Amino acid sequence: MRIVNGKVSAILGEDVVKAIKIVKFKPKKEVTEEVNGVFISLGGVPTTEIVKKAGVDVDDRGCIKVDRWQRTNVEGVFAAGDCTCGGMQVVTAAGAMAAIKALTYIRQKTGKGLHKKSRRNKSVKLEI
Question: What is the rounded CA–CA span in Å between residue 33 and residue 42?
């Protein structure tokens, strides 16, 4: 789901994301959408100000510092892509690695694995 005619007002869920609240611009109303993930897209130019405020380390160029598993200095926070300044050739691999490591982290913290029954996953990409 791509949100272009509104903004996310809340991410709902306790241990995991369950839904988001969206304030639509036209017509002006608030709706709730069930999702199992939220992906934030910062647009064409990498912007790391939001993560710096959250305590994530960046280098002198403003690139998010990650290890080879795409982990940042903040536990449970992973980064991949242009914001890490790792080079465009490895963006896909780095994104996959960040997703795998994030899933591993969540499984370790929650003790839960994937459901055996196939479920349609629904996620949202937020563009800022």
Answer: 21
**Could you tell me the pTM of the whole model?**
0.41
pLDDT digits (tens, 9 = 90+) for 108-122: 887 765 544 444 555
- Looking at the structure, do residues 25 and 53 belong to the same domain, yes or no? no
d(CA 51, CA 128): 14
Please check whether residue 16 lies inside any domain of the structure: yes
Q: Give the position of tokens 């959408």.
A: 33
Cα separation, 48 vs 41, in Å, equals: 11
Q: What is the DSSP letter of 65?
A: P
Same domain assignment for residues 29 and 59: no
On the CB side of 13, how many CA atoms lie within 13 Å of its CA?
13
- Per the structure, the count of domains in the chain is 2
Residue 23 burial (CB count, 10 A)? 14
